[in-house]
From TrEMBL:
Active site: C2 (for gatase activity)
GO CC terms, sorted: cytosol
Binding site for L-glutamine: D107
Keyword line: Amino-acid biosynthesis, Asparagine biosynthesis, ATP-binding, Glutamine amidotransferase, Ligase, Nucleotide-binding
Protein family: Belongs to the asparagine synthetase family.
The protein's annotated pathway: Amino-acid biosynthesis; L-asparagine biosynthesis; L-asparagine from L-aspartate (L-Gln route): step 1/1
Keyword flag Lyase: no
Name by which UniProt lists this protein: asparagine synthase (glutamine-hydrolyzing)
Gene source species: Maridesulfovibrio salexigens (strain ATCC 14822 / DSM 2638 / NCIMB 8403 / VKM B-1763)
C-alpha cells in the first residue's frame, strides 16, 4: 500500500529538477500513505515527473522500491495496492519464451512484466487485487492509469492549463499549490449534501475527477485523455448473472462459497509485515476472522474499540466472538473526548468534504490497530454483496406495501409521524418495548420513524431508494446556484432492471455507496496512519459469485446475508451473533447540543454563511434550530454542512 502522484508538463518546458521538485511536493502532501520511503523519476523530454511514497508490505528490500522500471526499460510505474495472485502470475510469466528473470519478489515487478508480456488491458483482466496503477510508456510516450475493479484504491486526476496531474488523494493535486484550481463545483456540492460524499467520477473541485472502478485511461502525447474504458464492469456482471442464477442444492452452494472465501483469504494474508483483522462481532467481520483462523498457524490478531455508551458499543460482542474463535484480541475503550479530538483532523484526513460520521470510530480503531500490525483485513462488502442492509430486507417489503397506498394518504401518515419528535417516539418504544414483536424492537426508533416519513411520498421505487439514501432531500434548494450532479449509475440505462428490487438495491449500493462512502472512509481513516486494509469480500471472484445467488440464500426468514450466516455458524454459535444490527457510529446528535455546540455555531453563523455564499442560510439555520429544540433529529444534515465548512477553513477555500 502506497501513495502515488504525477505531473505531466504538456508544453515540455520543464527541466528534470523542476519536474521532480513538483512531483516531490505532491507526494509530500500525502506522505502518510507511505512513510517507509520515497522516490521520484522524471523524463524532461516528455515533461513527466513521478512520485512514490512507500508503505513496505511485500519485498521489504531495495528491489521493491518505486518508481520501478520494467526489465526492458520500456515501462516506468508508480503503483499503489496489492496484486494478491502475483505468485501465480509470476510462475506463468517464467514460462514465457526468453523471460529475463527477476530482480526481487515484489508484486510490482510482476505487474510490470505482465504488462510487458500481455499488454495493459489484458494484464488488468488477470490481476486479482486492489490497486491504482500509473505507468509511463517510454516507447509510445503514453501515460496509462487504471483502478481496481471495486474501487478499493483511489485515483484522482485533473487537467490544469497545460499540465496533467494525478494522485492517490486530492491533497496530492492540491500540493501543486501555485497552479491547481480550487474552485468548488457547486453541482458536486449539492450531490455531496444528498449523500454525504461526492459521487464519482466528480470531485468537489471543478475539472478534477476520480477514475471510476474497473476502468483505465490513457494520456496521449498530444495531451488528449481518452474516455475511461472498462476492463471489468459490475453492471455487466449483474446483468449476466440474471440468467445464471445457481440451481445447485443449497448445501453445495454454501460449501462452494466457503471454499472460495478460504482461498481468497489465504491469498490476502500474504504479507512480509505483521497482519491482523478488525472485529466488530457482526456477521461479516466474524466470518472473515473465523476463516482467517482456519488458514493461520497461530492465533490471528484482532482489534475492536468500545464505547461506554451501550447504544454504540460492540466491544463486548466482539470479545465473546474472539474468545470463541481463539484470536489474540485487543480492545480499547475510548472516551467521548477521544472521539471529539479527531474532529479537527477530519479535513486533513478526508481531503474533500465527507460526512459519514462513522469516519471517527473507523479512524480510532485503525489508529489502535496500527500500533500492533501494518495490515488489517475487514468485512467490508458483505452487506452490499449479500443483502445485509435493512433496506434490502425490510425496505423492499415496505415499498411493496407503500406503493399500493394512495399518495395523499401516505403524505398524511408522514406528517403524523413527523409531528412527534424523535425523543418522544423513543420514549414510546421504550415503554412498550417488551410487548412489541421482534420486528419492531429497534435501536433509535425515533430516528428511523422520521426517516420513514421522509420516504413515504416517493412516486417510484427508484425515488424511494434515492430518498432512503439521502441526507438532504432537497440539496438544490440548500446550495446556491446549483444543479445537482447525478452520477453515472443514476441513469436507468446504467442500472440492472428493477424486477428484483432487492438485487437492484444491492447493485446500487455496491456501485455507489460502497465505493464513494465505505471504501473512501476506510482508505483515508487507515492510510492516514499508514495502515493497509484488505477486504476479501471484494475479490472479483467473490463478487461474481454473489451476483448469481438465488434470493433465498441472500434473505431468509426476514434476515439478510443468509449464506454468510450458514458458513459462520459452522465456527461460531448462532446465539453469539444474532442481535440487532448496530452500525458503527458516534452520538453526533447529542454532541451537537453539547460539547460541539460552540464550534458548530461559529461555522454556521448566519453572517458567515451569507458572506461565504455557498448555502442558502435560511435552510441551514432552520435545520440547526430544529435539531437544537429536539423537533427533529437533523444530525446528519448539520454534520454534512459542518464538514464542508471545516474543510473550507482547513484548505483555505474561498
Amino acid at each position: 500500500m502506497c501513495g502515488i502522484a504525477g505531473f505531466i508538463d504538456l508544453n515540455r518546458s520543464s527541466d528534470a529538477k523542476r519536474l521532480e521538485r513538483i512531483a516531490r511536493k505532491m507526494g509530500d502532501a500525502q506522505n502518510m500513505r507511505g512513510p517507509d520511503g520515497s522516490g521520484q523519476w522524471s523524463d524532461p523530454e516528455w515533461g513527466v515527473g513521478l512520485d512514490h511514497r512507500r508503505l513496505a508490505i511485500i519485498d521489504l528490500t531495495e528491489e521493491g522500491v518505486q518508481p520501478m522500471h520494467s526489465k526492458s526499460g520500456r515501462y516506468v510505474t508508480v503503483y499503489n495496492g496489492e496484486i494478491y495472485n502475483y505468485r501465480d502470475l509470476r510462475a506463468e510469466l517464467e514460462q514465457s519464451e526468453g523471460f529475463p528473470g527477476w530482480r526481487g519478489h515484489s508484486d510490482t515487478e510482476v505487474m510490470l512484466e505482465a504488462v510487458e508480456q500481455w499488454g495493459f488491458e489484458e494484464a488488468l483482466k488477470r490481476f486479482s487485487g486492489m490497486f491504482a496503477i500509473a505507468i509511463w510508456d517510454r516507447k509510445e510516450h503514453y501515460l496509462l492509469l487504471a483502478r481496481d475493479r471495486m474501487g478499493e484504491k483511489p485515483l484522482y486526476y485533473s487537467m490544469q492549463g497545460g499540465n496533467f496531474l494525478f494522485g492517490s488523494e486530492l491533497k496530492a493535486l492540491m500540493g501543486y499549490k501555485k497552479y491547481f484550481n480550487r474552485e468548488v463545483d457547486r453541482d458536486s456540492l449539492a450531490a455531496y449534501l444528498r449523500y454525504c460524499y461526492v459521487p464519482g467520477p466528480r470531485t468537489i473541485f471543478k475539472d478534477t475527477f476520480s477514475l471510476m472502478p474497473g476502468t483505465w485511461t490513457c494520456l496521449r502525447p498530444d495531451g488528449e485523455l481518452t474516455e475511461p474504458r472498462p476492463y471489468w464492469s459490475l453492471l455487466d456482471c449483474a446483468r449476466e448473472a440474471e440468467n445464471k442464477i445457481f440451481t445447485a442444492p443449497d448445501e453445495a452452494i454454501v460449501d462452494t462459497l466457503e471454499d472460495l472465501l478460504l482461498k481468497v483469504i489465504e491469498r490476502e494474508m500474504i504479507s512480509d509485515v505483521p497482519l491482523g483483522a478488525f472485529l466488530s462481532g457482526g456477521v461479516d467481520s466474524s466470518l472473515i476472522v473465523a476463516l482467517m483462523q482456519q488458514c493461520a498457524l497461530a492465533p490471528v490478531k484482532t482489534f475492536t474499540i468500545g464505547f461506554d455508551d451501550e447504544a454504540y458499543n460492540e466491544a463486548k460482542d466482539a470479545k465473546a466472538v474472539a474468545k470463541h474463535i481463539g484470536t489474540e484480541h485487543t480492545e480499547l475503550y475510548v472516551s467521548p473526548q477521544d472521539a471529539l479530538d479527531i474532529i479537527p483532523q477530519i479535513p486533513q484526513i478526508w481531503d474533500q468534504p465527507f460526512s459519514d460520521s462513522s469516519q471517527i470510530p473507523t479512524h480510532l480503531v485503525s489508529r489502535m490497530t496500527r500500533e500492533h500490525v501494518t495490515v488489517s483485513l475487514s468485512g467490508d462488502g458483505g452487506d452490499e454483496l449479500f443483502a445485509g442492509y435493512n433496506r434490502h430486507v425490510r425496505g423492499c417489503s415496505l415499498w411493496h406495501k407503500l406503493e399500493n397506498v394512495p399518495a395523499p394518504l401516505r403524505k398524511i401518515g408522514a406528517r403524523m409521524i413527523s409531528n412527534i419528535s424523535p425523543q418522544s417516539w423513543n420514549k414510546v418504544f421504550k415503554m412498550y418495548g417488551p410487548f412489541l414483536p421482534p420486528a419492531l424492537q429497534m435501536r433509535l426508533p425515533g430516528q428511523k420513524l422520521h426517516k420513514l416519513a421522509d420516504v413515504m411520498g416517493a412516486s417510484s421505487a427508484s425515488d424511494y431508494y434515492r430518498d432512503l439514501t439521502s441526507i438532504w432531500l432537497n440539496p438544490e434548494a440548500v446550495v446556491r446556484n446549483a444543479t445537482e450532479f447525478r452520477g453515472p449509475f443514476q441513469q436507468p440505462n446504467s442500472q440492472p432492471p428493477q424486477d428484483n428490487l432487492t438485487a437492484w438495491m444491492q447493485f446500487m449500493d455496491a456501485a455507489n455507496y460502497m465505493v464513494d462512502d465505505i471504501l473512501t472512509k476506510v482508505d483515508r481513516a487507515a492510510m492516514g496512519i499508514s495502515l493497509e486494509t484488505r477486504a476479501p469480500f471484494l475479490d472479483h471472484e467473490i463478487v461474481e459469485f454473489s451476483q448469481r445467488l438465488p434470493m433465498h440464500l441472500r434473505i431468509n426468514n426476514g434476515q439478510g446475508k443468509h449464506i454468510l450466516r450458514e458458513i459462520l455458524y459452522k465456527y461460531v454459535p448462532q446465539e453469539m451473533i444474532e442481535r440487532p444490527k448496530m452500525g458503527f457510529g458516534v452520538p453526533i446528535d447529542s454532541w451537537l447540543r453539547g460539547p460541539l455546540r460552540g464550534w458548530a455555531e461559529e461555522l454556521l453563523a448566519p453572517d458567515r454563511l451569507d458572506r461565504e455564499g455557498y448555502f442558502n442560510t435560511g435552510h441551514v439555520r432552520l435545520a440547526w434550530n430544529e435539531h437544537m429544540t429536539g423537533i427533529k433529529d437533523n444530525q446528519y444534515k448539520i454534520w454534512s454542512v459542518l464538514m464542508f465548512q471545516s474543510w473550507c477553513e482547513k484548505w483555505e477555500i474561498r
